[in-house]
Amino acid sequence: MVIAIDGPAGSGKSTVAHRIAEMLHITFLNSGSFYRAITLALLRAGSIDIRDSAPHFLQPQDAIVSFVQALQLEYRDAHLILNGEDVEELLHSDIIDACASPVSAIVPVRHIVNVHLRKIAQTMSIVCEGRDMTTVVFPDADYKFYLDASIDVQAERRFKQGVSNLSFEEIKARIQKRDALDRHKAEGSLKIAGDAVYIDTSDLTIEQVCEIIIHKIHV
Ligand code: DC
Fold it and tell me: Is ligand 1 within 6 A of the CB of residue 110?
């Protein structure tokens, strides 16, 4: 079984997907963590210039793609393992937040990630979340949901995570920029699948969102 959830940053999809997976005793698959781990590897390799407001790549795309192709990416117990190292705790810094979107806009990188995601889904039931789970990666998912939230709520949720060094207004501006980028990618852009259940989570608790989703799922 595949339960696919998409939505912008701060829509609550990670927390909700994690809870739903626990409730149904199936695997939680966070597709964003693949893009984040790849971004970490590229940053460590010095392949991204982060001095300007818009990060840019210091190598041609072919070299970036070859580098990504050679990375060993595994997903164990909802932790991303990069070349044998559990990097889960390193994936939510402001720098990775800012650079993951341009990395995920590289189409061949998306194809590499998609192969990983589909391979995982072949062997187990999953609740996956991201931007293109319902549209590109698992268009035939058993259940599809699109979670949304107002920009203020998105920024507030990120702010309350306490992992950012930025002010509320800075976080809000960055989320707006990132979501705009995520909505205009050549492939895998964030959009609402025609057959997805749309949930505006702005005024809902995590429990209420989970309740709506569980109500729609028949297991
Ligand atoms: O969901 P997240 O914030 O952890 O995702 C990190 C980045 O990766 C974000 O800029 C969107 C991108 N992403 C994507 O393009 N496709 C996905 N399926 C998941 C994430």
Answer: no
CA of 205 to the centre of ligand 1 (A): 23
Torsion angle, CA of 130/150/185/45, rounded to 10 degrees?
Answer: -60
Residue of 164, 196, 172 whose CA lies nearest to 5: 196
Question: How large is the average pLDDT for residues 82-95?
Answer: 96
Please indicate whether residue 130, judged by its CB atom, sits closer than 6 Å to ligand 1.
yes
* Contact criterion met (CB below 8 Å) for 19 and 12: no
Question: What is the C-alpha separation between 67 and 42, in angstroms, rounded?
Answer: 8
Our answer on whether the CB atom of 143 is closer than 6 Å to any ligand 1 atom is no
The pLDDT value given to residue 52: 74
Name the one residue in this structure whose structure tokens are 């969102």: 209
Closest CA to 99 of 151, 37, 148, 157: 37
What per-residue confidence (pLDDT) applies to 163?
A: 80
CA distance 129 to 70: 25
Q: What is the DSSP string of 123-165?
A: HS-EEEEESSIIIII-TT-SEEEEEE--HHHHHHHHHHHT---
Indicate whether this model's pTM tops 0.70.
Answer: yes
Terminal Cα-to-Cα distance of the chain (whole angstroms): 10
Looking at 55-203, list the stretches that DSSP marks H as alpha helix, in order from N- to C-terminal side: 61-69, 94-104, 107-123, 151-161, 168-183
CA atoms of 77 and 168, how far apart (whole Å): 32
